[in-house]
Structures are given as structure tokens and as C-alpha cells.
Amino acid sequence: MHIIAFLIRRAIQAVIVMFVISLIGFSIQDNLGDPLRELVGQSVSEAEREVMRDDLGLNDPFLVQYGRFLGKAVQGDLGNSYFFKRPALDVIMDKFPATFELVLGSVFIFLALSIPGGIYCAINHERWLAKTIMTASIIGISVPVFLTAILLVWLFGVELGWLPAFGRGDTITLPWGWDTGFLTADGLAHLILPCIALSSIMLPLFIRLIRAEMMEAMGTDYVRFAKAKGLSTPRVRYVHAFRNTLLPVVTVGGLMIGTLIAYTILTETVFQWPGMGFLFLEAVNRVDTPLIIAYIIVVGLIFVVVNTIVDFIYTLINPMVKLPGAKS
Amino acid sequence: MITWRGFLKRFLSDPVAVGAGIVLLILVVMAALAPWIAPQNPYDLLQLNIMDSELPPSWRTGGDERYWLGTDTQGRGVFSTILYGTGISLLIGIGAVIVQGILGVSIGLWAGYRGGWVDSFLMRLADIQMSLSTLMIAIIALALFQTAFDANIYADYAIIMLIVIIGVAEWPKFARTVRSSVLGEKNKEYVDAARVIGLPARKVMWIHILPNTLTPVLVISTIQVAEAIMTEAALSFLGLGMPVDKPSLGSLIRSGFEFIFSGSWWITLYPAIVLVALVLALNLLGDWLRDTLNPKLRRGDD
Amino acid sequence: MALLDVKDLHVAFPRGKKDEVEALRGVDLTLEKGQRLGVVGESGAGKSMLAFAILNLVADPGRVTKGSVVFDGQNLLTMSDRQIRRIRGNRISMIFQDPMVTLNPVLSIGTQMIETLKAHRNISTREAHRLSVEKLNLVAIPSAESRMDAYPHELSGGLRQRVVIAIALLTDPELIIADEPTTALDVTIQAEIMSLILTLCRENDVALILITHDLGVVAEVTERLMIMYAGKCVETGRTRDIIDAPKHPYAVGLLKALPQNSTRGAKLYQIPGSMPPITNLPSGCPYHPRCERATDECRAAMPPLENGVACFHPMHEDAEAAQ
């Protein structure tokens, strides 16, 4: 399959997913959010309300209303948050950097540990350290993210007092309005525990996956042939065997994006991390419908974008340009 | 396939599997017998005394003999709430997997047997749904229910909602597994024979193909129960799952979380230990089953 | 001095915690410079094991337990990893059975060729590229230059095996070990590939160990022949001699089973029974359960390899008479 055809197919799929998400967002607004609640008090009579409904277009046919919603959404207008009295999208986007940096940090941790860990466990699968890592990884998979987070807060934040356990600490605002915690010592210190917690389930999962794939690759004929060609051990391992484990790793990685976003909500809750997930839960408790809708749409968009990037990476490293899921 | 005897022999010769089996058995029995063995009934408000709140475990200073593992902020015995909570967690986990199994097996059978566009459409849908992640779907769905309904109504239906949502969101795992087994079985002679003698497609699927796909279904069921329990715990921890007055293990941990830092660590610690033990035992058993019955399946490879 | 001298080679795999199973049970072979040797036997006889053991590449958890492989005066089995890597793919090349799985699917043909050259020669990438194209031309791959950027899945099975042969020739080796190089290919191109290998070996004076189960091919390509059964050599000698007058009953059976040796319209001959698995060998000569000449002596002890045959009751002149 050609790269252009692939990109077109992805784009169509992205549009469909976003369409479904916008439909969900709209039906929430249609059923749960009553715009009149914001605009008027209890004193307004039912007849007056009906007039206002007509004025606001709330009595228009479903499709007309949905079209209006979509038109506004495309321009970034998702309504005002009931609580913050500001455009919901602005409120969400203010929190985006916090969540983004949290995810970035934890992806860094789990890539930096799972790749060497998985390769080590595959190559030295008979050694005690590899066996210990494998045992630890199944325990790691069985401990929910929020428990790991609580344990980290309790141990390093409270008992030992080594690291800050709540909030983002000092941040610097970059010229384009992005608050970053990466540039201050305090900000970095605040990132450590949440990032470890967020990577704590992905890490054992990927160590196991990389180990299994790597062991399979090490037993293939092409790795044997590479050895018979007299290539150096590192070249055989990392160029011939490891390159082939990347495909399944990227595929599974793509499948984990949604889970990772869900885990940010859990992690942010425990660490009171001022990100989008924390905001979303607050919005749920306050029944702040526009904010809930804005969150769902932003997360849907992030999901579609990241998924497309992952699939694109997949086509880059796979010379056969096989689409994930289109194998059979 | 191996015989029951050989299966039992291999099980007994593996200390990890036996250990996991024993832990699971103890937890299930304790949860099932909770109304009879629990010292208090945590649902019975008359038995609760706010004066007993936040008592430490009985062997520590200030502990009370009636409350072996201490009490929570509402004066409920932690031991009793754990017994009842384990039952709720198990009920939701198993219930959700039954829903997943019924949906997934039916869809998988259909997709695999029919093939063609039905198959590609359903599998593409499964891909998308799997990458959206069960937890994310459940969080959003439950958040919307909570926004839409009154808290009391929500509390009454929470258990059913959790079973249905976790069940529906996870159908692709079963569907994919069953589908690939069906593809393996479909062209075998006995299926052809059944078709040739004129059995209708539905009968061929249910009577002839289904029994041969049950091994992988059994293998993933165990791990799926563990995942469903984890998902439920996460949802309850976020306040989107079981309410505090009818707690699962996750909601117990949530209710104790705020009080760890004021020193009442037992409210969180003991339910957490039970949750991890339960999930770990199921995961270890699932891994063992997979290695024993179906070495081809691999976690993360779905 | 012989180019390759293998003595008493044993390969074993662990069975259970303490036990071991021998896949090769003491094999000797000698190969002169430029000589071509055929190794023949049923699958499971240990032919491929021999090929990999020569380069000390037996797959885990198997290992060489005994014996020596002396190549050009050096024992390959006692060398360090670094030393043996200078031999592998440089002075001894291998051609594997199935070209579909021999080449790495995610690396281009060019990468897989250039890396081989760069592992053994101190040359620039540009030079390595030029030499690679040269070899691709040598094995008659059309539009060789453009194939360098191709990936294995873009080539047919026959072309892939040509690429594998080109890789084997890259460093002008003194010995090529070909493990059933045509088995996985279409029948129509098997002869083409085989004659390519033969021509290249002849023209460049390269020694060849050809592992196959096809005696017909061996007769056309090789000068010497070794017949293996259950991890041992049962008969060895000049190819012509063995084909004309086989001594071991197993060799007789193999030749009789060739389609061209049977009368037109007659039923094809088949050796009765099948080779025992290495995990469960009978006592004495492993061939005795299938052998019509077997006696109590055969059931009791393994006959030693004497005068090129390991049999207590070898066929002599009466072999011809019996047929």
C-alpha cells in the first residue's frame, strides 16, 4: 500500500472518529446542559422561557442544532464553563501543558527503562536478575496505578520527605504562554513521583512484551544468518533482532494511548496535579457540562492525532507498510 | 489438549500456581461467607458508632478488640468492610467478564464464520475500541451518568452500570480470540461435514465450532477478571464507581486515602493489600493456564 | 593440509535437568581446497546440525560437546568469539534452506550486503556498495543497482536465494556450506539455482559442502559424498563410487528409492519403516530395525566406520547381483 493511500485512509478514519465524538458531545449538551440555567434565574415564567428557547434556537430541528454546534466547535467555541465563567476550551488548554509534561516525563522513563530491560531479560533469560525482573513485572502489572501513586506519596513524600508529592511546584511561563516545569529544579522535583507512578504499569508490560518479541527474533533464521555472516554481537542483537521487535512494540504502544490518558486522570488525582484529568473530575463533581464536553473533545482530538502519528511511525519502520489490524 | 488428570498433576507440581490458587480460594470463600463471618455488618447503620471511628488495628495502642484491623472514619470495622468489599469487587469482575464473554464470543463466532466485509468491519471496530481503552470509555460513560442522574439513583444502579460498562467496553478481547480460533477450525473436515449434511450456519457455529474455541476463552477469562477488578477499583477510586456506603475495594482505598497522612494508614493499606493479592493471584493463574493450555497466546500481543 | 578437517564431532541437547540427547554422535570429515562434498540423509539425520556445528553456531540450548573442526590449521571450536567471527561469513559462508526467512525483513538488500563486507573488510560504504552490485550481477539478478534499495518481500523466492548466494560470495570465501539451498524453492527454478552454485564454486575454486536429501543432485554436483543416519556417518567416499556400488544397506536403499532408478510403470521403492528419533535410538546399529541384512551382531554393537562404511555386513559385489 502506498503512503498517500495510507494517509488518506487515516484522515478519513480520523474524521469519522471526531464526528462520533462531536455527536456524543452534542448529545450531552442537548440532554444535560440547559443553557437557560446560566442565563436566567428561577423568576422567569415558562412562556418567557419558551420565547428565549426560540431565540436561542433550542427548538430547532436536531440536525440544525447539531450543525450549529459543529460550526462553533470547529472555531474552538465549546461554550462557557459554568464554574469558571470562561470559554471551556481556554480552561482546558490552560491545563494542557501540565498533563503533557507529565505524560512526556513518564514516556521518557518507561522508554529509557523498558527497552534496555526487555533486551536484557531476553538475552540473559537464564540469569537470576532477568528472572527477578520478570517476577517483579508480573507483580507490577497487578498493582493499580493509583496504589503505586499512593505508595510513592506516602514513602517519598511523607515518610522520607525526599520529594515533593503534590502539585507542580515552580513553573516558568514560556513566551507562547506555555507553563513549563522542566526548567526549574523545583518543577523537575515535582515531576519525578507522578511520572514514575504513571509509567508504573506501562513499564512491566513493555518489558514483558519486548522480552518476548526479542526472544522470538533471536531464534529466527535471519538472526542466525546474520551470525553466520560474521557480524558483531551488538549488530546482530540491536540491528537485526531489535529492529524486528519494534513493529509489535509500536502497535501495542498505539493501543495503549487511551489507557495512558485514563491513567493521567488517576495520577493527577493522587498527586493533585493541576492537569486536564484533575480538572475533568472537578468538572464532573460540579456538573460543569461545557467543561466535560470540552474535555471529551480535546481528549478525542489528542487521541486521533497521536494514533495517526503512531501509525505513521509504524509505516516508516515497516518496509511492508502493512496497516495494523489489516494483517488478515 | 491435556487430560484432567494431567492438568491437575501439572497444577500441583507448580508451587506458584498452587500458591495463587490457595490465595484466590481463601479470598473467594471469605467474600462469599462475609455475612456469616464478618464481625459487623457495614451496611447496617445501626451497628455503626461514630465514636469508634479511626481506631487503629487491635494490636496497637488505642486499638479495640472488636475491630481486628481497626475502623474507618465512619466507625466501620476495616476487616468487615474488606470482606464485603472483596465480594463486591469479585461480583463486578466476574459479572463484567460474563457480559464480555457472551458479547465477544457471539461477535467473534459470527465474524470468523461469516468472513468478508462483516469480519473486516467488526475487527476494525474492535481495533478502534481497544485503542480507546476500557478505562477511558468507562470513565467518560460513568461521568456522564453521574452528571445525568441524581446521586441516590446512581448509587442504586452503580453495580449494574459497572458490570455493563466494563463488560461492553471489553468485548474485543474475546471476539478477537474466538475469531482466530474459528478461522483455524472453520476449514476442518468436521465443519465441512456438518455443512454438507445441511445443518444451518448457526447450528454449525454453536454446536461444532464453539466447543473447540473454549480453551483460549477460558485462558483469557481469568486474566480478564483481574483486569475488570482493576478497572472497577480505578473507577471507584476516582469516585465514579461504587459509592462509599456500599464500598468495593477501590472505594475503600478512596475513602482512606485522605487519612493516610493524618496517620490512619490502616484504612487504605489493608484493602490495598487484598486488592493486589486478588489481582496478582488471578494474573498468575491466568499466566499459568495460558502456558499450560495454550502457549501461543501472549499478553500484550492482542 | 586439508582445508577442513572435522574429527569426532558431537552435539548434544539437554533433556530434563541432567540428561542429554546427542544429535551428532561423532562425525569425521575431510575436505580439500576446492573440493565439493555432498552430505545426504533423511530429515533428522543431523545434516543441518553438522553444518551449524562447523561454524560453532548450534542453536541454544544445544552445544558441541566433543571433537574438533580444524579449518586451515586452526580449530574453530576453541577460538574466541572475535576470532571465529573473522572466519564466519568471510572465509566460510553459509547458504540457508529457506530464502523467505533468511533475509531480515526490515533491512534493505543493500544494507544486508554492505554490512557483511564492512564486517570483514576495511572499506568505504561506497566501495562496499560497488562490490555488492558486482556480486548481484554475478548471480544474474536483473537491474542489480536498483535492487540494492529493495526489501526482501519485494523479491521472489528464487531472486531472494540468488541474493543469499551473492551475500555468501561477497568476501570470496574458501568454503561455502549450503544447507538444502533449493528445497524451499519452486521445482522449476531448483535446477537453475543449483547450477548457479556449481558454476560459481568451480570458477572461483571454492570448496562446497552441499547438504541435501536428493542423491540425484549430489551425483551431478559433488565429488565426494557422505551419507548420514541418526547423527552418524554411515558411508563416505567418492560420489561416483558410492552411486555405482553402495556398500551400506541404507545407501543401497536410498539409491533404490530414486525415481530414475526404478523401472517405468513399476511401483516406487521405499525403505521400510522410518528413522528413529534421536531421543529414542535402538541398541547397536541404529539402522538395524529397517535392515534386511541385520543380525544379532548388529543389534548388539555399533559397527565402526572402516573403509568408508559403518556396517558389519556391507554389500560387496553381490550388491549388483541382488538387484
Structure commentary:
The complex is a heterotrimer of chains A (328), B (302) and C (323). By secondary structure, chain A is mostly helical. Chain A has helices at 3-31, 35-39, 46-56, 62-74, 88-123, 128-142, 145-159, 185-199, 202-218, 221-228, 233-255, 257-271, 276-285, 289-317, and strands spanning 172-173, 179-180. Helix content of chain A is 73%, strand content 1%. The two termini of chain A are 15 Å apart. Chain B contains 13 helices and no strands. Chain C has 323 residues and is of the alpha/beta class. Chain C has helices at residues 47-54, 81-87, 99-102, 109-120, 125-138, 144-147, 157-169, 187-204, 215-221, 239-244, 249-256, 296-300, 318-322; strands at residues 4-15, 19-31, 36-40, 63-71, 74-75, 92-95, 175-179, 207-212, 224-229, 232-238. Chains A and B meet through helix 1, helix 6, helix 7, helix 9 and helix 11 of A and helix 5, helix 6, helix 11 and helix 13 of B.
Query: In what range is the share of β-strand residues of chain B?
Result: under 5%
Shape of chain B: elongated
What string gives the helices and strands of chain C in order? EEEHEEHEHHHHHEHEHEEHHHH
Calculate the mean pLDDT score of chain C and round it: 86
Query: Rg of chain B from C-alpha positions?
Result: 22 Å
Report the strand count of chain B: 0
Notable characteristics:
heterotrimer; B: 302 residues; mainly alpha; 13 helices; elongated; C: alpha/beta; 6-stranded mixed beta sheet; 4-stranded antiparallel beta sheet; 10 strands; 34% helix; globular; disordered C terminus
Which secondary structure elements does this structure contain, and how are they paired or packed?
The complex is a heterotrimer of chains A (328), B (302) and C (323).
Chain A: H1 3-31, H2 35-39, H3 46-56, H4 62-74, H5 88-123, H6 128-142, H7 145-159, E1 172-173, E2 179-180, H8 185-199, H9 202-218, H10 221-228, H11 233-255, H12 257-271, H13 276-285, H14 289-317
Antiparallel strand pairs in A: 1-2
Chain B: H1 4-12, H2 15-32, H3 34-37, H4 78-114, H5 116-132, H6 134-148, H7 151-169, H8 171-186, H9 189-196, H10 201-209, H11 214-237, H12 249-257, H13 266-293
Helix pairs in contact in B: 2-4, 2-13, 4-5, 4-7, 4-8, 4-11, 4-13, 5-8, 6-7, 8-11, 9-10, 11-12, 11-13, 12-13
Chain C: E1 4-15, E2 19-31, E3 36-40, H1 47-54, E4 63-71, E5 74-75, H2 81-87, E6 92-95, H3 99-102, H4 109-120, H5 125-138, H6 144-147, H7 157-169, E7 175-179, H8 187-204, E8 207-212, H9 215-221, E9 224-229, E10 232-238, H10 239-244, H11 249-256, H12 296-300, H13 318-322
Parallel strand pairs in C: 3-8, 3-9, 6-7, 7-8
Antiparallel strand pairs in C: 1-2, 1-4, 4-5, 9-10
